[in-house]
Amino acid sequence: MRWFSLYICRASLTRAVVLAAVWLLGSSALMAKPVDNPYPTVVIADYVFGCMGSNGQTREALSNCSCSIDVISSIISYQAYQRAETVLSMRLLGGEKSAVFKTSARWKEAVGKLRRAQAEAEVRCF
User: CB burial class (10 A; 0-12, 13-18, 19+) of residue 66?
Assistant: First the structure.
């Protein structure tokens, strides 16, 4: 039981030191700058894994693919990216259900924005 109270005291002391540092430095010094166009981490990881699968499982490919998704996220919003990815996955379906995603000008433009962003990322990062 004694080790537990010692742990609590250390945790309280650590917490007090951190709070004092935040107060002295100001909370803005310790906070990251907000991102204007945040892509969810899982989307970024999924893109990088897929990209590395196409370009090799090397450290250089990791760097290039990470750069690529950063460039894409600076060009198009996450909502536009998500829309284009959804259209591309719906195009993989067969039959009548996928026809609207292949022929509609609206969906072609959504995919076109993503393709242009990917081309720019290719130029900048690879």
Answer: middle
Roughly what angle, to the nearest 10 degrees, separates helices 41-55 and 78-91?
Answer: 50
Q: At a CB cut-off of 8 Å and minimum separation 6, what does 67 contact?
A: 121, 124, 125
Predicted confidence (pLDDT) per residue in 73-116, tens digit: 999 999 999 999 999 999 998 888 788 888 899 999 999 999 99
Tokens of 42: 């899982």
CA distance 7 to 4: 5
Q: What angle do CA 50, 51, 53 make, to 5 degrees?
A: 65
Q: What is the pTM of this model?
A: 0.69
Q: Which of 38, 122, 25 is nearest to 81 (CA)?
A: 38
